[in-house]
Design goal:
The protein has helices at about 30-45, 60-70, 95-105, 115-130, 140-150, 160-165, 185-200, 210-225, 240-250, 265-270, 285-300; strands at about 1-5, 20-25, 50-55, 70-75, 85-90, 105-110, 130-135, 155-160, 175-180, 230-235, 255-260, 275-280, 305-310. It is an alpha/beta fold. The chain has a 6-stranded mixed sheet with strand order 1-13-2-12-10-11, sandwiched between helices. Strands 4-3-5-6 form a 4-stranded parallel sheet, sandwiched between helices. Strands 8-7-9 form a 3-stranded parallel sheet, sandwiched between helices. The longest helix is centred in the first third of the chain and has 17 residues, at about 30-45. The radius of gyration is 21 Å and the shape is flat.
Length: about 325
């Protein structure tokens, strides 16, 4: 139920929404908090510049803020000067990145989300036991590249239920599946069900690979979509979990749009809508939500309430190399 307001029937005679519903949970997950904190602490401990391989998290505002503080983002670890401090992004990397870094004598700080590291461990375990690993994910995503790099001769990418129905393996009795942590829960389960039908002896991870924050935010947006006439998801276009939130809302028949900030809100999205739902992906800072809310209030919205679904208590310890007290 709503916090700070009571449910009212939908009305369509107004030209702009007068009600804003905020999903909870939303925004930063524990892995993103850990990654961003890692860069900020490294800058204070070692001083700028600190080099970061790829975007530390998939949000352009977070990247720009860290750049202003002295972080230098590089596409490849070999672009960092020899002997520099290099931070690895939350999405994880293939083993060759560590090898290249060692050759350049880089001081590596690994900010990989522990839930992604778990998938890497599983990939190595299944590969060691000779399994063909069917990795459910999006081609080209950094997390998929990193996981595939743990066992390149064993991993086969499965991008959809359709591919799951047609993929062939050399030994159908020796197959395992893993998944990218930021996928749609429902679509991933559909792929897994297809794989289980085709390969009855398929092995899986001890626990689901989809991260707790991805699942929680998708469940929250389902409720948000059912209570809203339109949903705005704050997140960058390269954020997989943010794009999935849009898809989940739309799958329930509610118009939904991905925006980086309030400047991308189009008036026609809001016309004839009573209630606008707002949420944010796991890489989006809360101050972006505040800016969107202020923009909607400036357009005429007067009622702001929060739709609370679940509490999150997850916390990850910081990586080795930045656990020292910061003066």
């Amino acid at each position: 139920m709503f916090e700070g307001g009571t449910e009212r029937p939908r009305q369509y005679h107004e030209t702009v929404p007068n009600r804003i519903v905020l999903a909870w949970p939303r925004g930063y997950c524990a892995g993103v908090e850990r990654a961003v904190d890692t860069v900020e602490r490294a800058l204070r401990i070692y001083g700028p510049p600190v080099y970061v391989r790829k975007q530390i998290v998939h949000n352009i505002y977070v990247v720009r803020d860290l750049e202003a503080k002295g972080a230098v983002f590089v596409e490849d670890e070999r672009q960092a000067p020899e002997g520099a401090v290099l931070i690895l992004s939350a999405h994880g990397v293939a083993p060759e990145v560590y090898e290249n870094s060692a050759r350049r004598r880089l001081s590596v700080i690994d900010a990989t989300c522990p839930l992604v590291t778990k998938v890497h461990f599983e990939a190595r375990r299944f590969a060691r036991d000779g399994y063909t690993i069917l990795l459910i994910g999006h081609e080209g995503h950094e997390e998929v590249i990193g996981t595939s790099g743990e066992a390149p001769r064993h991993v086969r990418l499965v991008r959809s239920p359709e591919e799951a129905r047609t993929i062939e393996v050399s030994d159908p009795d020796h197959v395992a599946y893993l998944s990218q942590t930021t996928l749609s829960v429902d679509e991933t389960n559909e792929v897994i069900e297809v794989l289980k039908e085709r390969f009855p002896r398929i092995e899986g991870p001890p626990r689901d690979d989809i991260c707790y924050a991805t699942q929680n935010r998708q469940e929250a947006v389902k409720q948000l979509a059912s209570e809203s006439d339109v949903v705005l998801v704050i997140g960058s276009d390269n954020s997989s979990n943010s794009k999935r939130l849009v898809e989940v809302a739309r799958s329930l028949g509610t118009p939904a749009y991905l925006i980086d900030d309030e400047t991308e809100i189009r008036s026609e999205w809001l016309e004839g809508r009573e209630t606008v739902g707002v949420t944010s992906g796991a890489s989006a800072p809360e101050w972006l939500v505040e800016r969107v809310v202020e923009d909607l209030k400036a357009r005429g919205a007067t009622d702001v309430c929060q739709l609370h679904t679940v509490d999150e208590q997850m916390h990850f310890s910081l990586p080795v190399g930045i656990r020292e007290p910061v003066a």
